[in-house]
Amino acid sequence: MQRALAMIIALAGGLSWTSSASAAGYIMYVGTYSGPLSKGIYAWRFDPDTGKLTNLGLAATTLSPSFLAAHPNGRFLYAVNEISHFQKMWHSGSVSSFRIDPATGKLTLLNAVQSLGDGPCHLALDRKGQSLLVANYNNGSVSAFQVGANGMLAQSESFFQHRGSSLDPERQKGPHAHCILLSPDDRFALIADLGLDQVLSYRLDAAHAKITENDPPFTKVAPGSGPRHLAFHPNGKWVYLINEMKSTIITFAYDSANGSLRELQTVSTLPKDFSGHNDTAEIAVHPSGKFVYGSNRGHDSIAVFAVDPKAGTLKPVEFVSTKGQVPRNFVIDPSSKYLLAANQLSNNIVEFKIDLATGRLTPNGVEVKNPSPVCLTFVPAK
């Protein structure tokens, strides 16, 4: 694994960057899968007043940074290095930390640590930026790391290996941890595991990057659902889970006292007349709490739902084409006015204006090319 980390550090030295600096607004970082076109993390200057994106180029050369998370202070960026295809040589994926130049968006590698699992696919930071949790998809495990004041990651303080299987003999013959969602008070970590058809719950000591098993330890969902990603409603009372294999969203009531979930409703992410193959991907709740969005890969769309303000349940509004192939990720910008969809296979990012009264999406003409975009995240620029 030391060879892998050395290569990540060496690659991060080969930066390609434009000279123009961002004077205002935000920097949007784009995580990718490494390949013939993609070399690492890319950056765009984003103007929240107009939605305009300006290309800043390759921010850091690093191996398959397929999911990103920004530190709450805006000074550091973290990326999983989903290097499971090197498993036989290195036995583990890794996590990289970068220092952000807020004027140019340039990233400087600080360090990289083993994720202690194969195929790390998701990470999350607590609200003070003291600990970072990583989900390893291929072997279904979760690791926690302490974050230093300098942004660097210490070796893992906690590790849990999930065990079991579920209905599908191909995709669910073992655990596949896919997402980490921290509770609003940072006391609990909810883990969506596609292979187990469970949302597992851990207690979190964020100051020391320690996770311990919770009681109750998990919530089961319908067999064959394939839990993928989770999102909290802004009021902290409801949690939404998008299921990759069944193309559904489950609304849960969240008990903040013990970190448990109670199922309220299940809805489809697809229109009734669609009969093709589909895998869902991302889910997000609008900051207003009025709308929930989920992405479909196959139907290649964003499903839009209205939230019942009393019950938290969802009502379909529309299904909007992402104008590309395989929208693995999307994000609502910091101004809450735009939704940006990252289409992995068509190498494009398409922007939509959000109707703040209805939640409906309208393409606003902003569309940019970016190799293999699979994760989008914003940080303030200077």
Distance from first to last alpha carbon: 37 Å
Q: Find the count of extended strands (DSSP E, 2+ residues).
A: 28
What profile does the largest beta sheet have? 4 strands, antiparallel
Structural class: mainly beta
Number of helices: 2
Strand order of the largest sheet: 3-2-1-28
How much helix, percentage-wise, in residues? under 10%
Order of helices and strands: HEEEEEHEEEEEEEEEEEEEEEEEEEEEEE
Alpha-carbon Rg, integer: 19 Å
Question: Which of globular, elongated, flat, extended, rod-shaped describes the shape?
Answer: globular
**What is the mean pLDDT?**
93
Unreliable residue runs: 13-23, 85-90
Q: Strand portion, in percent?
A: over 45%
Account of the protein in words:
- It is a single chain.
- A hairpin with a 5-residue loop joins β12 and β13.
- The chain has two helices and 28 strands.
How would you summarize the topology of this molecule?
Blueprint: H1 2-11, E1 26-32, E2 40-46, E3 53-61, E4 68-70, E5 76-81, H2 87-90, E6 94-100, E7 107-114, E8 120-125, E9 131-136, E10 141-147, E11 153-161, E12 177-182, E13 188-193, E14 198-205, E15 210-220, E16 227-232, E17 238-243, E18 248-255, E19 260-268, E20 279-285, E21 291-297, E22 301-307, E23 314-321, E24 327-332, E25 338-343, E26 348-354, E27 361-369, E28 373-380
Antiparallel strand pairs: 1-2, 1-28, 2-3, 4-5, 5-6, 6-7, 8-9, 9-10, 10-11, 12-13, 13-14, 14-15, 16-17, 17-18, 18-19, 20-21, 21-22, 22-23, 24-25, 25-26, 26-27
